[in-house]
Amino acid sequence: MKKIAYFLLALVLLQSCRTQRDVLYFQNIDQVNLNQAGLTGINEYQLQAGDDLSINVSVDDKELLAPFTLNLSSSTSGSNTSNLQGITTYTIDSEGNINFPQIGKIHLLGKTRTEAIAELTAQFSRYLKNPVVNLKVNNFRVVVLGDSGGRVVNIKNENANILEVLAESGDLKKTSDIDNLLLVRTENNKRTKYTVNLKDANLFNEPYFYVKQNDIIYIKPSKASTLSFNNTPFAAISTILSLGVTIYALFIK
Predict the structure, then answer these.
(1) d(CA 108, CA 53)
(2) How many whole angstroms separate alpha carbon 206 and alpha carbon 161?
(3) Is the CB of residue 21 less than 8 Å from the CB of residue 222?
(4) DSSP state, 172?
(5) Domain interval for residue 113
(6) pLDDT tens for residues 122-165?
């Protein structure tokens, strides 16, 4: 009878925990060349329709900016706002353009931030002397949902990677299926899905290591967690059973 008690105790303990291999990231990191892709995986974000852009134009004489900015009190457009320092917010329309006062339509769809700044600088140089242009994408975000809860992560770094996003969202739980995350990416009106395996260090060389605007990351619960006694209402039963078996094994001959 005592042997049966020990067997039941071992069974409960095994049922209530996961092995290190179930939760350890990058298990083959010693066998993977992390520089295989070099830094070629870092692709500067390409602007898309619907992107909300903050454009800051600086010149020596700020009065010269007046024709190129919109006064909040007189503006009737919902897509353009500005202040007196020449900071203006524009939304790229469905045709890939923004509409600047005095200049007209400027096509920015598909351009990187660097290319867009060069284009804007060239346009402003037709009217202003030595303009300095800065551009920021305001709505760069990634959605994380599933086993870790749900969160929209606002991205400040254009070269942010999936590990940064997961950390920002609170990291994965012990119950998460770390070798079977789903990433859905939308580019050029097409959706592509990727399976992300955090156990595999080859992740660093994958094209989806660096996140892009509007990526969706779904964290699935592991199969073991859905069956485990760790989940309510089985947790209490598992604890009581474990305690009872332990007492029996220690005090009853």
Answers:
(1) 11
(2) 11
(3) no
(4) -
(5) 46-70+85-137
(6) 999 999 989 999 999 998 999 999 998 889 999 988 889 999 99
